[in-house]
Amino acid sequence: MIIKSKAPLRIGLAGGGTDVSPYSDLYGGSILNATINKYAYATLEPLNNDSIELQSIDKKINLIYASSISLEADGNLDLLKGVYNRIVKDFTQKPLSFRLTTYVDAPAGSGLGSSSTLVVAILGAFVEWLNIPLGEYDIAHLAFEIERIDLNMAGGRQDHYAATFGGFNFMEFYKDDKVIVNPLRIKRKYITELQNNLVLFYTGTSRNSSDIINLQSKNIVNKNYDAIEATHKLKEQSVKMKEALLMGKLDLIGQILHASWENKKQMAQGISNPEIEAIHKVAMDAGANGGKISGAGGGGFIFFYCPGNTRFKVIEALKTFDSRVENYEFTAGGLYTYTI
After folding, report:
1. Which tens digits make up the pLDDT trace of 87-120?
2. How many folded domains does the chain comprise?
3. CA 38 centroid distance within chain
């Protein structure tokens, strides 16, 4: 028996950062994101030799342990260990023996939610294997607790829900970890046009999002007026983005992205840097009318809205930089698991 699982990565179109505590607890947050056809994969093979094998293909790490009720989080494949530890604690109360193999289509620190998506994929594989009765909200919330509480990794809530539910979603975040996921019924032609006009560009650098997110949270705790007001505006822009997509007012998307980027940079230091600003300027000069970093900032992927027929000029202009435009498609599906 082999259990396989995959969960999609996402682009954060608007509202990013409003899902992070303490802002979401104090004011409530909202985000609009969409999943794409890049995935985190997990393969689970039950063993009967009292061992646990953890393999990360993309990181080229292979670890073997004696089967036990807990694996120490020591900086090596901690996401894999964190999921296992929680599964034992909450559901089996006894050690398991298995081989777990993972792969992610984007590097850590890409801004596409790769770490959280991997947690969802791994958790989905265990849920499938052990036939644990968890629904979509349960899986997303448990994945959030494993990464943010058990492993104490800084970040928000959106990625776990995006990976679990899939598609275009308008998400609302409240205190006490309450989340409401609102799937959006966007006309296919609007999605197709958005996909055509939205250019996804990898900056060539990854970053530690925890540092930026910790600064962002600190600014809220310290009642930094500029940071709080900027975050309020980001929340408002998520609503504007939802309306633009549902009503087919795609000509507004570039404006919303531009405003979001200017506000996002007010949340914390390190969100932008000279290299990102240079990339942004080249794309805008070539015809884009808005763009921003996907994720916390500091590196990873940046995307631009290119109205009309300008995407080709923007892509050509971005060849100035030693990186790449990433091909992608929006996807409607979320977490998917099966057994063979």
Report:
1. 999 999 999 999 999 999 998 778 899 999 999 9
2. 2
3. 11
